[in-house]
Design brief:
- With about 150 residues, this protein is α+β, with helices and mostly antiparallel strands.
- It has a single domain, classed as Hotdog Thioesterase (Thiol Ester Dehydrase, Chain A), CATH 3.10.129.10.
- About 25% of the residues lie in helices and about 35% in strands.
- Strands 1, 2, 3, 4, 5 and 6 form a six-stranded antiparallel beta sheet that branches.
- β4 and β5 form a beta hairpin.
- The longest helix is centred in the middle third of the chain and has 15 residues.
- It is elongated, with a radius of gyration of 17 Å.
- About 25% of the residues are buried.
Length: about 150
């Protein structure tokens, strides 16, 4: 039997969905920063980070953290075959994420609304990204168009 995501009607505001965890590796960091031009000393220069920042080690770009969090969301299956479109995001970065950190995502439905088209609805999700120490490192609201039950 094929796995399918949750339909608009099945996404309940009183439930929190959890993703698996994923460690952000050096390879993830290098592939992302070099592929997309994130050549900031903050991400690439250990000596700079040790001398000029409070972090002591290189951090990963927030865009990478967001991308991994969205990947974990997709892998959770809740959008599989039922997600129609990504409509927008509002994000706050709360703490730095470092190479070697392991993140997971808590997903909550905070708003739902019907559309003129009866086969879909708009769902606003609130994602909380946690690291291995259970500290929230990022949070974001994302709107997605979701299929309704046939």
């Amino acid at each position: 039997m094929a796995t399918r995501g949750l339909y608009f009607e099945e996404l309940l505001g009183d439930q929190i969905y959890y993703t698996n965890r994923r460690t952000i590796t050096e390879a993830d960091h290098i592939n992302f920063t070099t592929s997309f031009g994130f050549f900031e000393p903050l991400f690439m220069d250990q000596a700079y980070v040790e001398k000029e920042t409070p972090y002591g080690r290189r951090i990963v770009p927030g865009a990478l953290t967001f991308s991994v969090a969205e990947g974990l969301t997709i892998l959770s299956g809740i959008l599989h075959g039922t997600g129609i479109a990504f409509l927008g995001v509002e994000m706050n970065v709360l703490k730095p994420v470092f190479i070697g950190d392991t993140i997971t995502v808590e997903i909550e439905i905070i708003e739902k609304r019907e559309t003129k088209k009866t086969d879909r609805g708009i769902v606003t999700f609130f994602h909380r990204v946690k690291n291995q120490d259970n500290l929230f490192v990022m949070e974001y609201k994302v709107k997605r168009m979701m299929r309704r039950k046939p």
